[in-house]
Design goal:
The protein has 574 residues and is of the alpha/beta class. It is built from 13 helices and 21 strands. The chain binds 1-deoxynojirimycin. 1-deoxynojirimycin (NOJ) binds next to loops. GO terms for molecular function: alpha-amylase activity.
Length: 574
């Protein structure tokens, strides 16, 4: 016997849960408040030049497919000149395109074509660190200790009698010490430099005004080329606590016993806000509302919301949401606290379920035994996700997310229901996490596998030559874009329908209220305008209230007024 959701519809408690902020009056101007932004991971999107690595011409060629998805913008992960030690997040020249991706002319062609489709292009700004091959770091190595060239980075003398110990105990995100000792130009063992990531990624010294000048120049370089804004890498790390004190918590700054995350000396320091404000002024001096989106892992949400005050960033990814477990109570708590926290500063919440750093949500939701650290990847020796369970839940969760007011980021391939490659041979792994931890943490290659475009072509049409920098699983033909385009029940067509409807019904601009509490804790039900979105995260079927079925996460979902587990629907309330 299905339990019932048909509670009396009025009055909705919490109809003003999300008060309409004054700034929303201008909502049509503020495109980013409700935008859908599609993340492109260039090396895995489409390879037009046949070397097995995706490129800018490949992205241009793929734009019509994204226009069909009706996205507002694309965010391109780094395509700048780089030795590719961390897949481009080790930038050697911020104002040049790496030859593996193409040329600046290719970028101009891409933005022009995107504009024809009404799609903005957002680029990735990596201000915390550069590549050790960057001219500034090479100059620092060649200069003496204490010189202006060294002051661009965080060099310190080592501890111990001969300076043989790192200056503090900080650990790299990717494993091992966050310090590397250099050999001075005269051949003697010398100072140490800080790198919160790989040793090939030295951290800039943001206490030095010359670093500010350098990045203002970079911002203007891309703004002058018409970009729609920047996703800002590790935005919470730029300023370090003075004195660089030891830290007993985790390397990523997250809380551990005795070490609350808000005290991490390498993250979330107050001086950051002045940097964001100065960048915001620069962006605001350009036409067309260019945006800043912070990648910041900051707890709690109230503190994260400080990043998006009216004169700072426009958006910040909601990683608490990305990590939500398959649990309705917990999901409701995260949604509610997010909307409250961000509304307090007049900012939208920016929802996201997948990106290039975490196990894809199809695979996460398919893990019945749980998975502690999604950034560490899944390998052949791990329990394997249940693909079909994961896909059903991922489709349901995406539909629920698209009903929420605010902005949304999608990660390339999620519209195809791609899982992670969980049986990737270790020989193929490129993520520095794998190599710096001697394979203990597998890293993120599994979620970065090249996209399948055509079922029957070599490398599923990803590359014109059939080459692919990471091998694709052998059973992806059914997931290829061309197959899914022809199948009305496909994940691709679900995304298209949901995104079209989301825009038509202006759900991104809406407000949220909970459908009256129900005794079935496994159900999440929210009202946005006259749409009721319901997701069944419990174990049994649920009776839906009367209403017009607008869309279901599964072709049969909500038919006959019943919602089965692991599905979601949008209903127009009767
Ligand atoms: C966050 C990026 O998303 C990730 O891919 C990268 O490895 C680190 N920042 C370092 O830039």
């Amino acid at each position: 016997m299905p339990s019932s959701l048909a509670a009396p519809p009025a009055p909705l408690p919490g109809a003003s849960l999300v008060p309409v902020h004054d700034a929303w009056a201008e909502r049509d101007r503020h495109w980013w408040r409700s935008s859908v932004i599609y993340q492109i991971y260039p090396r895995s999107f489409r390879d037009l030049r046949g070397d097995g690595i995706g490129d800018l011409p490949g992205i241009t060629a793929g734009l019509p497919a994204l226009a069909e998805l009706d996205v507002d913008a694309v965010w391109l992960s780094p395509f700048f000149k780089s030795p590719q030690k961390d897949a481009g997040y080790d930038v050697a020249d911020y104002c040049a395109v790496d030859p593996i991706f193409g040329t600046l002319e290719d970028f101009n062609a891409l933005t022009a074509e995107a504009a024809r489709h009404g799609i903005r292009v957002i680029v990735d700004l990596v201000p915390n660190h550069c590549s050790d091959q960057h001219a500034l770091f090479q100059a620092a190595l060649a200069a003496p200790a204490g010189s202006p060239a060294r002051e661009m980075f965080i060099f310190r003398d080592g501890r111990g009698e001969h300076g043989e110990l790192p200056p503090n105990n900080w650990q790299s995100h990717f494993g091992g010490s966050a310090w590397t000792r250099i050999t001075e130009p005269d051949g003697t063992p010398g100072q140490w430099y800080l790198h919160l990531f790989d040793s090939s990624q030295p951290d800039f010294n943001w206490d030095n005004p010359a670093v500010h000048d350098e990045f203002e120049r970079i911002l203007r370089f891309w703004l002058d080329r018409g970009v729609g804004g920047f996703r800002v890498d590790v935005a919470h790390a730029l300023i370090k606590k003075s004195g660089l004190p030891d830290w007993g918590g985790r390397a990523d700054g997250s809380s551990s016993e005795g070490f609350p995350g808000h005290e991490a000396p390498m993250f979330g320091q107050d001086g950051i806000h002045d940097i964001f404000r100065s960048w915001r002024q620069i962006l605001d001096s350009y036409d067309g509302e260019r945006v800043l989106c912070a990648e910041a892992t900051i707890d709690p949400l109230d503190r994260l919301a400080q990043w998006v005050r009216p004169d700072e960033m426009h958006q910040t990814f909601n990683f608490a949401y990305l990590h939500h477990p398959w649990n309705a109570w917990e999901l409701r708590r995260i949604i509610e606290s997010s909307l409250r926290a961000f509304d307090r500063v007049g900012a939208p919440t920016t929802w996201v379920l997948s990106n290039h750093d975490v196990v894809r949500h199809v695979s996460r939701f398919g893990m019945t035994s749980g998975h502690a650290r999604p950034g560490d990847g899944l390998g052949p020796a791990d329990p394997q996700p249940d693909y079909w369970l994961g896909l059903a839940r991922a489709r349901a969760a995406t539909l629920l997310m698209l009903a929420l007011p605010g902005g949304v980021y999608l990660y390339q391939g999620e519209e195809l229901g791609l899982p992670d490659h969980t049986t990737l041979d270790h020989d193929h792994r490129q993520d520095p996490t794998f190599h710096r931890t001697a394979g203990e943490r597998l890293g993120r290659d599994g979620c970065r596998v090249p996209l399948p475009w055509t079922a029957d072509a070599p490398a599923y049409g990803f590359s014109s030559s059939g080459a692919s920098w990471l091998p694709q699983p052998g059973d992806w033909a059914g997931l290829a874009r061309d197959r899914q385009a022809a199948d009305p029940g496909s994940t691709l067509n679900l995304y298209k329908a949901a995104l079209r409807l989301r825009r038509k019904l202006a759900l991104g601009h809406g407000t949220l209220a909970w459908w009256p509490e129900h005794d079935d804790a496994g159900v999440i039900a929210l009202v946005n305008g006259d749409v009721l979105a319901v997701m069944n995260m419990g174990g049994g079927p649920v009776q839906l209230p009367a209403g017009e079925l607008l869309l279901g996460s599964h072709p049969e979902a909500g038919r006959d007024g019943v919602l089965h587990p692991d599905t979601s629907v949008w209903l127009r309330l009767a």
